[in-house]
Each structure stands twice: as C-alpha cells, then as structure tokens.
Amino acid sequence: MTASLLAWVARILTGARARWQGCTPVGEQRVYFANHTSNLDFVLLWASLPDDLRRKTRPIAARDYWKGGVREWLASRVFRAVLIERRAVTRDSNPLTPMLDTLRGGESLIIFPEGTRNPDGEVNEFRPGLFHIAKALPEIALVPVFIENLNRVLPKGEILPVPMLCSVTFGESLRLAQGELKPDFLTRARDAMLALRPK
Asked: Cβ atoms within 10 A of the Cβ of 165, count?
C-alpha cells in the first residue's frame, strides 16, 4: 500500500508519462538501464512501471546514500532496493554480486550505468557493470530508458522538489552479441539510450 501511494505521488509530482517506444510492459525479466541526473531517478522509473512489473523490479542504490533513518526504511521496505557499495569496494563487497544474485532469483533490476549523477543533464560514459551483467546472464533483456527533466524537479543540493513535467521513455531491448567486446557493447547500449532522448 505504501509503495503504491509513493508511486502515485511520484507520478503526480513530476507529471511523468511513460512512453513504451521499443517494447511493451510485459512480465519478462529485464534490466532497465537509464540516465542518472537526480536522486529521484530510480523512484520515477520504478513508479512508471505497471503495478505487476513494479512488484518484481528492484532498483540498485548506493548504500552510503540510503543509510539510516527514513531513507533506509524506504530503500529496504518500500522500494526493496538492492543496496551496493560504491566507495570501499572489495572482493567481498563487489557491487555485481548482489545484482547477479537478484537476477538469478528471478527479479528484474533498475540500474544506472553511469554510476553517479550528472546534474547538468549530459550522459557520462557507461561503467562496465552492464557489460558484466549481459555477459553473465545473456538471456535477460536489457531495456534502455531515458528520463527527461527530472534533474530540474530535484536539482542537486535541494531538498524540496519543484513540480515539472517529466517523461520516462522505454526503448527496444538489446543483448550482448556473440564476440562483442566491452567497449563496443557499452557504446551501443549508451547510443540506444541516447536515441530515446526527446527531440
């Protein structure tokens, strides 16, 4: 009930419109990968999914940001986020391990291949995590998503959001091609996401 209410509030606050341009909202297991400009990115993408897909989709989030108090409660109990280390990464805290475990458990993921927010709206080069997921689990569909305007709703350093129309565009799924090298795959995935940017 709390999850449904928060999803509704997120859609109302941002006026978010989900656009399914290259795929449809069906129940296949997926990794949704999107651009990252705001701390609300995963909330909005998660809220844009139909209820049945949202219940089976978990966002990836930085443990250090979502640690303690209300944030931790929201991340673990409402969003069911997979919290990962992004600073003191060791063999035992490899961020890929919980991601792959979640996927092998049958759930879908929301990830941000840039790794960190870029509040100016530009899209940074992708880090290699998406490639490693595609290589380890080639049967899972990778769906590019472009989130438009969210960096203006909650600019970096602000606490209160500013109502503004946003869009969440879902593109055609892709997979790692046989023999495809990491740089080529990451460029292709990034280009597929950028192609969804509203003209």
From this structure: 12
Structure tokens at 78: 């409402």
The CATH number corresponding to 2-194 among 3.40.50.280, 3.40.1130.10, 1.20.1090.10, 2.60.15.10 equals 3.40.1130.10
pLDDT (tens digit per residue) in 29-64: 999 999 987 767 788 888 889 989 989 999 998 888
Chain centre distance of CA 24? 17
Burial group, residue 110, by CB count within 10 angstroms (0-12, 13-18, 19+): buried
User: Residue 97: CB partners within 8 Å, gap ≥ 6?
Assistant: none
- Sheet (strand 30-34) strand order: 17-20, 167-170, 141-148, 30-34, 108-111, 57-62, 82-84
Whole-prediction pTM: 0.86
Q: What is the DSSP string of 76-112?
A: IIIS--EEE-SSS--STT-THHHHHHHHHTT-EEEE-
